[in-house]
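Anyone else keep sequences and structure tokens together like this?

Example one:
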Amino acid sequence: MKGSHEIIQARMKGRSPAAIYIIDHPETLPIEFGEVDVYLIPLDKMDFRFTVGLLVGITSLTIERCKAIAALCEKGGARATTYGVQRKYY
């Protein structure tokens, strides 16, 4: 999961982003601190224990996948999750 290791390292040093943003759709912009790219990763390969106590925002291509990722974050200890379907605007 691209971006998760930087968050884990910061948390081990007592630092943390105010919120984490899970990106589960094609994205061409570089990942910033606090963002985690999980696009194309199977749900059973995701580990969200690093979200413990944090607010997590999720964008995905389907509402079903948003809900599944939110459930994994909550299982990992996220304080709260919010999600939405990524839309293409023309």
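And example two:
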Amino acid sequence: MKTKNKKAKASKQAAQNEAAVSRAQAMALARFAVECESLEAFGHRLLAESARLKAAGFPAKRGSWRYYLERQAAVYLSGQIPGEVFKRGGNRKLPFFAWSTLPIVTCPGAGDCVDWCYSLKAWRYPAAFLRQAANTLRLRFAKRSIIEAAKNLPESTTVRLYVDGDFDSEGTALFWANIMGQRPDIAFYGYSKSLHILAAVGHRFPANYALNLSSGSMFARESAEYRAVSAMPFTRGEFLAIPIAGKHPRGFARYQSPEYHRAVREAAKAAGLVGAFSCPGECGACGHGRHMCGRVEFHNPIVIGIH
């Protein structure tokens, strides 16, 4: 009963947050994060957004947009960036350390994925949006803090780069290549559509990075960029979202359904994907402790179903 009440409360708060800040308004704030001239300018923008919500009658209660906007604005106005650089165990799906930036506005290789981007669902929760914004701003104004945080990560851990967002430039990709090279004990992995960037500088990436080519990119399989990155030694293979038939449980419950995984495998076979592996939904739950997305030697396509 407590779990059900907690979910209902969270769902209600998410609905209130969406009413306060629409997807379009959040996107405008995201674009400002990649264009603003300083941390202080971003802080002033957060205060302006909070003032708009106050005038519209939205309260500043815990968990609301106003609650987070006002607190984080004060940090930015002091010339600092709030929150952790790497977050661990943010949800049940991801037990590893994770790095994210704002989706779409940092995704130069995005194609039709902008129409169904899963990362945007997190924007119902202001803490998630502002965490993505903080790292976006770190890359622009406080790279040293990222370097120091990477130095302090535990030995032999796993880091997922870009749960949300992507390599936005060759400079950013090389920045991460250098960090990964300084921590050869850490297993880095991720998913990217910035294939033009990786095609240009991927030869500088170290052996402790595993790349999954994710669906929705502007680069077709026949493109020179796709072929070039596919041939690079750090590329594991494809991670694809494919349409499946039938009705299946929503959210994480679908991954417990044998019918869902059967539908995924059937759809993958029909699409000509040989030896497709149906993602179990929780990173680290497959591969007997060595999750498949991080295993460069496993080249079979990994797929999830969309319906």
